[in-house]
Amino acid sequence: MKFGGTSMGSAERMQVAARIIAEQSRVRPVLVVVSAMSKVTDLLLDTLHRAELGDRTAVDASIQSLLEKHLQACTQLFTVASGTGSFQEEAWSKVEALVAEFKRITNGIFMLGERPPRSVDEALSVGERLSAALLATLLNATGTKAEGVNAAEVIVTDAVFGNASPQAEPTRQRCRERLTPLLTKGIVPVVTGFNGATSDGRPTTLGRGGSDFSASILAAALDAAELWIWTDVDGIMTADPRLVSDVAVLDQVTYAEAAELAYNGAKVLHPRTLAPLAEKHIPVWSKNSFALDKPGTRIVSSFDEPRGVRAVTSMSDVVLVSMEPASAVLSGTRVMARSLDALALANVEVLVFSSSSYRQSFCFLIRKHDLNSALGALGSNLSIELAHGYLKPIEVDENVGLLAVVGEGMRGLPGLAGRVFTAISRERINIIAIAQGSSEITIGIVVRLDGLERAVRAVHAECHLGQPHLAAQLQ
Ligand code: ASP
Ligand code: MG
Predict the structure, then answer these.
(1) Cβ(205) to ligand 1 under 6 A?
(2) CA-to-CA dists, residue 202 to 129, 196, 222, angstroms
(3) Domains of the chain as residue ranges with CATH
(4) Measured from the CB, is residue 211 less than 6 Å from ligand 1?
(5) 128 C-alpha vs ligand 2 centroid, how far in Å?
(6) pLDDT score for 327
(7) What's this model's pTM, rounded to 2 decimal places?
(8) For the chain, what is the mean pLDDT?
(9) What is the spatial distance between Cα 133 and Cα 139, in angstroms, rounded to a whole number?
(10) Is the separation of the CB atoms in 353 and 364 below 8 Å?
(11) Contact between 82 and 143 (Cβ < 8 Å)
(12) Which atom of ligand 1 is nearest to the CA of 36?
């Protein structure tokens, strides 16, 4: 089970988590992965940034509030009245020690005037280590045997600090050594989400929101029967409820659908979560720790389900980059190859890529925060072609948004794309670029930013997504 930031957000939420864990661990072995308390990772990152800038007052204030937040949870969780007073001291000293560790790294950054990536990763893991320590102590205090475990001991990764990838075999080995014995003894391991370490012990993190990924890495390494991801929403929805009023919670989706939804902007799962599980067919539940009566969404390899669109997502923090050879002397295919290579080397993810036309112009969509590195990489890779005018100047359009229509059931269903496009054009929204892969599971549609939300509503209504059980017949 993985508990996200809001599910660990306060003493009260931790008590709910502890009750869920206690109940389930009576019927089967349970391993727990936790995020930092909500907003803590942002606070840590901001503190490190201020340390780099040399702002001592701000750094001290942030560290103080980090300490207070966790000590407050500590006093609320362990009280003489509830008979857990003696655990308070234990939790208290763990919190103090971890905050002191964070402070030590911050001081180093302060003196250097620089944030070395591995120190950032080490410092960020403190958020999860704090919440794991609190939850493990709470479980012990309330009669469920538990042990806090730093994922740096069990998740082995490459050395891409800030966005590391796991190495399956060494991780499996470490899990067998460190976690299986706990599980066999009936002790619940409470493992930190988000972090890991290289095989020679250098601390890493898996990217923002990476605790979901941590949980799936461990589930795969230990051949778990199921993975339950506890969040603050009822499951995977047919659209973003902030944009569409009649969204529905899907009772089942496939791994491929969930991955496409996450990748195209749905916030419910970290996009890398499903890969380790799909191979082993480990089912995932997305559940709401604030509404225990709701069943949640089940994510599985495949199931017999109505055909058609399942959900629609959108992303607004994106830009469209267009490139076009100025003369036929230059092979368009070659320019595409070199551009994509430059983007890959600069770690820029291409969300949509589209090319057609005799002139071999092409465009691609990337995240706004990747724009500078993308332009830098393209500029240096194609500097001669640009300088000599073989290639027209690169165009950037920031006034765009991406809408993605997702559903495995779209495969081989003629007419659906037409209906989606008609629904969008009925709203007088101009479609700028389109991409559909041959797997037919996602159609990516780039539209003007001011039409994005209306387009999402139009597609949701057109495909009757608010009534998932009727949608297939109506589509
Ligand atoms: N605490 C980390 C973050 O905020 C990881 C996570 O929450 O999944 O990015
Ligand atoms: Mg989170």
Answers:
(1) no
(2) 16, 8, 23
(3) 2-232 (3.40.1160.10), 312-470 (3.30.2130.10)
(4) yes
(5) 10
(6) 82
(7) 0.90
(8) 94
(9) 10
(10) yes
(11) no
(12) 1
The residue assigned the tokens 């930190």 is 192
Ligand 1 pocket, residue 192 CB under 6 Å: no
Which residue, among 212, 239, 242, has the nearest Cα to 227 in the 3D structure?
Answer: 212
Ligand closest in space to the Cα of 214: 1
Q: Which of 35, 66, 129 to mutate to test the pocket of ligand 1 (most atoms within 8 A of CB)?
A: 35
CA 254/CA 459 separation, integer angstroms: 21
- Atom nearest to 270 CA in ligand 1: 8
Beta bridge partners of 321: 364, 396
Beta bridge partners of 68: none
- Both tokens of 158, joined, read 């490459």
Helices (H), 56-167: 56-77, 85-112, 117-141
pLDDT tens-digit readout, 93-131: 999 999 999 999 999 999 999 999 999 999 999 999 999
Strongest mean pLDDT among 88-97, 264-273, 327-336: 88-97
Amino acid (1-letter code) at residue 449: L
9 lines ligand 1 (CB under 6 A): no
Closest Cα to atom 7, ligand 1: which residue?
Answer: 209
Q: Tell me how far the alpha carbon of residue 301 is from its chain's centroid.
A: 20
* Cβ of residue 210 lying under 6 Å from some atom of ligand 1: yes
